């Protein structure tokens, strides 16, 4: 009986041991009776599904979830070849396939995808059958699970195949992080039809805004990969990126920027997968529809992270903070998530990637959809919170509806040691308020943040903010 099947999470990166040493001799590895080599398994999968699909059907095949991008590409290309060679189907145009795959992976990477959404995305491009799946480790072998989803009926048939490790599979698994980034950039380059000016946006940890040493390494590697795609990509200059960050009011592309030469932004995130890092990158158009032009994922093994001294969590004075400390800070600033805002209110830095070097100057942009009075709090590397605006009568903390204010407006914020992640928190109020009178910093905690949120007004006494916003950034040595 056919049923809807959800796309499952990308598998962890595990390397298969072909023979384990014990007492100086290799142990015999026993494989299941129905297992076969990678190439044979792909051919068997094609032979299984091709007869089931009616002739003349419009078929879309997207790249499979697999331990490495190189392996994902290989399974896709081989399976595509079998379907195309059958001369039985109308194969969806490759560029449209990239768009289908990008939308699915972008939504899936955000934890939002479901069967209905997957079917809806595919239907937009005229496909009738979507073929997708994943290759995952299963003991000594791998399991290739393939789904053929009927887009119109929203039903799926599925079949699992056992893959026996061989030289081909080993070669596909043995890729370096540099090769994976280069492949990811190549995937994004395929999605554009002409030379495109791109900027590097934030590549952050999990579902937070935090960036780390891994963010900086990915940015450098992406630029290096893009330079090998000179016919497709032109990396925006720092000046162009800074102007774009200011004009677009944020790290996500909110509005088209008149006169900007930047046509797309590369953003992403990374998350722990056991001890490895799972990286997702997205190429997003800056045009009115903000289309996801391409999405790709890959895994950096723990051994490579250690060898390259790359960290996922933010650092403080060249030491990685503990997960407990990181989560405590996230919980403390939770009141600034903006979830209960009464109107649109944002605060954003003047750089897209949220990374500053020692000696850089930072400005931020405060935007409000309604007239309001605002307060800005700075949280330093050591977790000490301090009101930095307004601090004197000369600080004008009133902003009109639809206006964007640049802060600071009468001093300069210079980045310096200690190095690591810092936070900017902003809150909007409907009434003017008195200066707090507190000049010193207080340790960051949920209680101190709550106290900072409450202000004294002349008309209504103590009030809480009507809207909040925040961003994080990282200071690195030059």
CATH topology of the largest domain: Rossmann fold
Point out poorly predicted stretches.
1-26, 251-256
CATH H level, superfamily name of the largest domain: ABC-type transport auxiliary lipoprotein component
Structural class given helices, strands, pairing?
alpha+beta
Shape: elongated
What is the strand content? 25-35%
Q: Alpha-carbon distance between the termini?
A: 61 Å
Radius of gyration: 25 Å
Classified by CATH, the class of the largest domain is: Alpha Beta
Helix content: 25-40%
User: What's the helix count?
Assistant: 11
CATH architecture of the largest domain: 3-Layer(aba) Sandwich
Extended strand count: 28
Number of domains: 3
Largest β-sheet summary:
7 strands, mixed
User: Please, what is the average pLDDT?
Assistant: 83
Q: What oligomeric arrangement do these chains adopt?
A: single chain
Word description of this protein:
- By secondary structure, this protein is α+β, with helices and mostly antiparallel strands.
- 26% of the residues lie in helices and 32% in strands.
- The protein has helices spanning 38-49, 69-85, 94-109, 115-123, 167-173, 177-190, 213-227, 238-247, 302-307, 323-332, 446-453; strands at 21-22, 25-26, 58-61, 90-91, 129-138, 141-150, 155-163, 196-205, 233-235, 264-273, 276-285, 292-300, 315-316, 319-320, 345-349, 355-357, 361-362, 364-368, 372-379, 384-389, 398-399, 403-407, 413-414, 420-429, 442-443, 455-457, 461-463, 467-476.
- The strands form eight sheets. Strands 16, 19, 20, 21, 24, 25 and 28 form a seven-stranded mixed sheet that branches.
- A hairpin with a 2-residue loop joins strand 13 and strand 14.
- Mean pLDDT is 83; it is low at 1-26 and 251-256.
